[in-house]
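Quick check before the chapter quiz. The format below is the same one you will see on the exam, so make sure you can read both the input and the output lines.
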Amino acid sequence: MPGRKLSEETRHEEILRAAYDVAARKGLDALTLRAVAVRAHVSHGTVLFHFKSRTDLVRGLLDRVLYATIVLRVPYGVERIIRPSERLHALLRAEMDRLSTEARHFRLFLEYWALGVRSAPIRNRIGAALDDYRAAWKALTLPMLDPHQESRSGRNGQGEAKRLTADGIAAVAVSLVQGCALQAVIDPKGLDIEHHFDVAAQMLDNVTGRSNAIPRSIPAARTSKRRLRAR
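Here is the expected output.
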């Protein structure tokens, strides 16, 4: 409604949405207070009121970037799959599809990763988010495991059988998802998501000790292609 005065909280959120749009389109180097003001249709002073500096704005945007890239989304269709192994495969496909479809989100995450090399606060926040992401995968893998199950990968140096762990499966799943997203960033023309998923599913089967091929009845569980940015 014309002339409507927005609350400070709403204005703050609109500025962050505009900042995300600028950074996702052009990279963090293009993220300036003036560029965000133009995108948000506010004055430069208004942006300064909410973010005292460009550094403040970059740090304020990080949570939104992490949510777009390393927060596990479980689509409704995947939640309804009863068998834990099939549910894990469907979720693997959904996450690979989601992150590779809009590679610019993961590209922005990689820019923050590079910033984290020099900034401990950013590095720590990314590390905590990755821990949460792996923990979410771990929670989904636990129902697959018998407490006494042993992996088929052989024995360690002491001759004791290596045990398959939920932490290990989660780490492999995260590596497969993020590897797909990385390829979508650096070599999008060379990425065949169907083939990539089939190979990733087979690798996950090998890790979990499953001998049967992935059932073709498992839904692809594609997530919505709607872009995460808000105009």
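If your answer matched, good. The domain at 8-66 is CATH 1.10.10.60 (Arc Repressor Mutant, subunit A).
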